[in-house]
Write a structure and sequence with these properties.
Oligomer: heterodimer
Order of helices and strands of chain A: HHHHHHHHHH
Strand order of the largest sheet of chain B: 6-7-8-3-9-10
CATH architecture of chain A: Orthogonal Bundle
CATH class of the largest domain in chain B: Alpha Beta
CATH superfamily of chain A: MetI-like
CATH topology of chain A: MetI-like fold
Number of domains of chain B: 2
Number of helices of chain A: 10
Number of domains of chain A: 1
Number of strands of chain B: 10
Structural class of chain B: alpha/beta
Helix content of chain A: over 70%
CATH class of chain A: Mainly Alpha
CATH superfamily of the largest domain in chain B: P-loop containing nucleotide triphosphate hydrolases
Largest interface: A-B, 23 and 30 residues
CATH architecture of the largest domain in chain B: 3-Layer(aba) Sandwich
Radius of gyration of chain A: 22 Å
Shape of chain A: globular
Amino acid sequence: MKPNLVKATPWLVVAAMFLLWELICAGFDIPEFLLPAPSAVWKVGIEQFEPIMMHATQTFLTTLAGFAIAVVVGMLIGMAVGSSPLLYRAMYPLLVGFNSIPKVAFVPVLVVWFGIGTVPAILTAFLISFFPVVVNVATGLATLEPELEDVLRSLGASRLDILGKVGLPRAMPYFFASLKVAITLAFVGSVIAETVASNLGIGYLMMSASSSMNMPLVFAGLIVIGVMGVVMYELFAFVEKRMTSWAHRNPNGAA
Amino acid sequence: MSFVKFENVDLAYAPGGALAIEDVSLDVREGEFVAVVGPSGCGKSTLMKLISGLRMPSGGYVYVDGRQVGGPLKIVGMAFQNANLLPWRTTLDNVMLPLEIVEPYRSTLKKERRRYEAEARQLLARVGLAGFEDKFPWELSGGMQQRASICRALIHQPRLLMLDEPFGALDAFTREELWCMLRDLWQLQPFTVILVTHDLREAVFLADTVYVMSKRPGRILVRREIELPRPRDLDVTYTDAFAGYVHELREHIGRVRAT
């Protein structure tokens, strides 16, 4: 296939999906309060552009805040767990157990603690997205080649030296890979919390729209979330490529 | 005066567990080139860990430079079968890594960077890597990576170089090239070398003294001085004297494996 055509395939797939959706809605004459056609969603999106953008901005900032905390906390826990086999053993079951709890079940607890609003949404985004960062940073550190460690230790390197010179740089590809996963999870977290306990954000917008049977608006919200997720994912994929080009080397094409 | 001295050294990795090496005594002069050969799993690598202070003996004593080894030594350079270069650093930066850790280089690196860099480039040129300093390790062939790895082991001018099957993964021709490279480096500026290998030709070609170890638990069975004149050329490997040494060592190994 021609390279340009390959590049265009994601767009073609999206366009095909919308087209199929439109045809199904028109062909089976599906009422709008069940499944609105893309054209109806688009119309609402234009009409209600300002409120949608306002809620989207709220969700976006909430997600970023939760994601930022997740990156910092995940990095710290990951470093601790990854560089100490004892901590690894001690903490892992707890972390896995914690990660298995559906975060939506945790939102009411957060509401009791912090009230309805932005804080539970930020915390939910954080709670749902820090685990992949922990796992990846810990894996990156824990899989250090023992011989390389011997080389450094025989030079008299401290643990901190080894962490800084080898451990962290080596864990960077894992770390940046986890950011892509974490940012999309953070959107899930913030929208869940907004749906349950907020009066702002895309989650809230969808909740109130569905209670008034305004399905086109609900779908407009879903699409906005999806778009934000893809954009942020691509951004972090780009950052990952730039920061860790040595890990994505092409043995034949390297300069 | 011995530089590295083992006195009846035992090592069990788990307390009270099976011994990895047993009752090893040996003496290495400063500047001597020693090779340790033996069947696989005989505790050759354990020996290296003991000398470098990464492991403490369960019994007996290890002395390096007249002092009992009590922790990682800083006068040691190490290289392994796997070159273990860091893929995010250029070849030059990989070679410079020890200077970022070992004193006195560590505290003077900022000021003297240019001088150290020149030294590293000179060392790389000496092993035939001129022009590859700014390439990344994954752009080098296996033999080149191993050359760089040995440069990294030597950049801080260690008095003791320890090599654990450094040429094991290379093809025969590259291996012989690297023997000569190591020989030249050592002849130019003698340091003590302990080379762990299971290539008997490699041991005889490079070493002053060859130790043969037994199967686990590793013990030293034979100590053989190689009295081939230096400097040795690759041609020496086709002489009868050379073949005699290899043959003799081979018989010892054969006996070890048969038991």
